[in-house]
Design a protein that fits this description.
Blueprint (H helix, E strand, L loop, with lengths): L15 E4 L1 H8 L6 H12 L4 E5 L1 H15 L10 H14 L2 E3 L5 H11 L4 H13 L3 E3 L2 H6 L3 E3 L7
Helix pairs in contact: 1-2, 3-4, 5-6
Length: 160
């Protein structure tokens, strides 16, 4: 099985992928476009077929997105009840995604943002982590998936 970076993994090595909030939320929020793919990714993770890692930022993006799901967005009704959000939060915590500190990558994130005229530093923390780990970033963000070679769309087969 090829390694996500393109290298051949050592025997017994579990492929490691960076995951962003958009990919995780596709499994957590109702009626998301890529829900089946997100569910399959999380099943592979829970089965030990791959490892997931993300910047610590993931925690706050998940919290914010789940909170917004209880408020509704742009006049739309709430997507989740407060009870459902609590259950989703616990499911996320129980996943135990490995979280990485990115403060030492700040200069690289800022350089990438300026180079690409990117709207969000948050997105680029995932990109830089994937680059640093020499792996792929799994995302449901179409713009991000198209802009960076390291980004891999959730809707395509896993890159290993």
């Amino acid at each position: 099985m090829p390694h996500p970076s393109g290298a051949v993994p050592r025997r017994g090595e579990t492929p490691r992928l960076v995951i962003d909030a958009s990919a995780l939320l596709a499994a957590f929020l109702p009626e998301e476009k890529w829900e089946p793919q997100a569910d399959a990714l999380l099943t592979a993770y829970q089965d030990g077929d791959l490892a997931l890692v993300a910047p610590r930022l993931l925690v706050y993006e998940m919290l914010n997105s789940l909170y917004m799901a209880t408020r509704g967005k742009a006049g739309a009704p709430p997507r989740l009840s407060e009870t459902e959000v609590g259950e989703c939060w616990q499911l996320f915590v129980d996943l135990g995604v490995q979280l990485e500190e990115m403060a030492d990558s700040g200069a690289e994130i800022l350089r990438l943002a300026a180079e690409h005229k990117w709207q969000s530093i948050y997105d680029l923390s995932y990109v830089v982590l994937a680059q640093r780990l020499n792996t792929k970033l799994i995302t449901a963000d179409v713009k991000l998936a198209c802009a960076f070679e390291v980004a891999h769309p959730l809707w395509e087969p896993l890159p290993f």
